[in-house]
Request: fold
Amino acid sequence: MPDTSLQGKKIAFLVAPEGIEQAELTGPWQAVQEAGGQPVLLSTQAGTVQAFDHLDKADTFGVDVVVADASVGEYDALVLPGGVANPDALRTDREAVAFVGQFVASTKPVAAICHAPWTLVGAGAVRGRRMTSWPSLATDLRNAGAEWVDEEVVVDVSGPGPLITSRNPGDIPAFNAALLEHVGA
Reply:
């Protein structure tokens, strides 16, 4: 029998039109579905988004909602998949940054993996938070006021809502477990 701890919960997955690390989108997406939740793909443009397996093109995914038309109140949590180009593009999009900032200011969980914390930096949402990421972001996060640590998953509950971060695709099982725990709470 499937786990239904997220029954009735909508989880926003925010990505740019391309450059998403596919495993960091599909792994948490599947975990949300298996737990009875409804994942919703948000992007900065309508249509489809291009995922990658490292530097190689992988699958495309249909966008459900353009972030400019989304409201934080419609969702129970936010997931920010990584990939290098994906968060780099998101952090330059005004609507995406505003949405992320509003989500972090809410009491709802925000989960970011690998390079995705760049978007959190752009939203001014990391100061005073303990977090992890892909190692090359450590300096950026420290410069933005975060305490960076090299751990599989970090759950910081010092802000309005939980901030869940992980380093890379190898951390997805721990990332998913923390996400499900805090969304289902």
Remarks:
- Residues 51 and 57 are 6 Å apart (CA to CA).
- The longest strand covers residues 56-62.
- The longest helix spans residues 22-34.
- The two ends are 20 Å apart (CA to CA).
